[in-house]
Design a protein that fits this description.
Blueprint: E1 5-8, H1 18-22, E2 27-29, E3 36-38, H2 48-57, E4 63-66
The chain binds iron/sulfur cluster.
Iron/sulfur cluster binds near residues 8 and 63.
C-alpha cells in the first residue's frame, strides 16, 4: 500500500487545532494565525488512523487524504 498523502486548504482553515491534537506528528498550528501547518505530508503507515481521524473531525473540512 502506498503511503497516504495529506493535503490541506489553509485558506479555509478556521484554526480550531483539532488536527494537531489528534495527530501531532503530522499537524501543527502556525504560531501567528493558528492555521494548520503540515509537518509531514506523507505520514508513516502507523499514523494513518490518527490522520484519518483528524480529517474526519476537522470542523472546516479542509484536510484531504489522497491515496
Ligand atoms: S482541525 Fe481543521 S480547521 Fe482546525 S486547525 Fe486543523 S485543519 Fe484547521
Amino acid at each position: 500500500m502506498s503511503p497516504v498523502r495529506v493535503a490541506v486548504d489553509r485558506e479555509r482553515c478556521c484554526a480550531a487545532g483539532m488536527c494537531a491534537l489528534v495527530a501531532p506528528a503530522t499537524f501543527s498550528q502556525d504560531d501567528e494565525d493558528g492555521r494548520v501547518v503540515v509537518l509531514e505530508d506523507r505520514p508513516p503507515e502507523g499514523e494513518r488512523a490518527s490522520v484519518a481521524e483528524a480529517a474526519a473531525i476537522c470542523p472546516c473540512g479542509v484536510i484531504s487524504l489522497l491515496e
